[in-house]
Amino acid sequence: MLLIAVLSLSWSFAPEITQSRIKSFSVLVATALALGSVVSLDDLRNAISSAARFTVAVSLMTIVLLPSYGSVPEANGPAGWTGLAFAKNQLGFVACIGLVCELGLVVGRLNPWVLLHCVAIVGSRSSTALSVALVIVVFHASHTVLRKLADRGLRAILATLMLWSGSGIALASLFNLSFVTGLFGKDARLTGRGDIWALVIRSIRERPVLGYGWNTIWPSQPGGPYYS
What we know:
The chain has ten helices and two strands, in the order ααααββαααααα. The protein is mainly alpha-helical. A two-stranded antiparallel ribbon has the order 1-2. The radius of gyration is 21 Å and the shape is globular. The protein starts with a helix and ends in a 22-residue tail after the last helix.
């Protein structure tokens, strides 16, 4: 991925922006490689879990003690909790990561952190976080059920039924988007995301092979095609 980012300098829409973003991306890649070489997967998961626990715990305390600081008013969607994060989507994102870690750390007994992460996700009222959390819980439950089945044939049949059921639900949701988004307090345009996706599709059609260069399509400074 880093190599592709570097090569994109030759066709970038805004080379100075691409060069700046490559520097920060290089630091991220180097840090990830360093951690991966000295930290085991279990230790890394424990570290991420601890960070998510701290963030969610302090955020919930902030929401209780300083509600005016720990929540945001309704803007482009329903009001929700932010806690230590800058936006409710960020709190929901951290809680989702913590939820994944907690479901993998403790098996066979009740984990109170799972409940706290779910509380943070629901309180954030982030439709993205709620959707992701639902997928996480359903996947974990399905995996747990399938893992306990000793009969491989029955396991394959049940997995196929789950796959077809999930595909059917997803397809039905697409044809009833207004109803589904209404459940999360959103409109069918997903708080303007539909307009953004239309621009993305148009951009892909204009430069389908090489694109616009690494991280230049939505720049935080002038130069990109959709800066305004």
